[in-house]
């Protein structure tokens, strides 16, 4: 079981979102406690070219960008897909 934490920037990103979207993202983030690695479902993918290794979780038009540190999932950014990879 992994613990999910967020950076101050990710918390700020979440706070700026519509409450409905925020609740969807938080509900989806619970799957990161069980299986934060990519699987066949396609919702989680490895982001290429970033050090340390980052992953993304797709939730509709939004992306949760995170990295895994021992038994902790650290959410780095939460953004709309058009802004997430900048």
Provide an overview of this structure.
The protein is α+β, with helices and mostly antiparallel strands and 86 residues long. It contains three helices and five strands. The chain has one domain: YaeB-like fold (2-Layer Sandwich). It has a five-stranded mixed sheet with strand order 1-5-4-3-2. The chain is globular. The relative contact order is 0.25.
Task: Summarize this structure as a short list of keywords or feature phrases.
alpha+beta, 5-stranded mixed sheet, YaeB-like fold, 3 helices, 86 residues
Order of helices and strands: EHHHEEEE
Shape: globular
Given as residue ranges, the uncertain stretches (5+ residues, pLDDT < 50) are: none
**What proportion strand?**
35-45%
Distance between the termini: 30 Å
Described by strand count, sense and barrel closure, the largest sheet is: 5 strands, mixed
Strand order of the largest sheet: 1-5-4-3-2
> Over all CA atoms, what is the radius of gyration?
12 Å
Question: What's a concise summary of this model?
Answer:
By secondary structure, this protein is an alpha+beta fold. Helices cover 28% and strands 36% of the residues. It has helices spanning 8-16, 19-29, 31-34; strands spanning 3-6, 44-47, 54-59, 62-69, 72-80.
């Amino acid at each position: 079981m992994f613990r999910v934490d967020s950076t101050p920037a990710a918390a700020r990103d979440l706070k700026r979102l519509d409450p409905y979207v925020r609740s969807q993202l938080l509900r989806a983030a619970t799957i990161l406690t069980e299986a934060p690695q990519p699987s066949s479902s396609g919702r989680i993918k490895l982001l290429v070219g970033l050090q340390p290794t980052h992953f993304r979780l797709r939730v509709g038009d939004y992306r949760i960008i995170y990295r895994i540190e021992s038994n902790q999932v650290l959410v780095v950014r939460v953004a709309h897909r058009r802004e997430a990879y900048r």
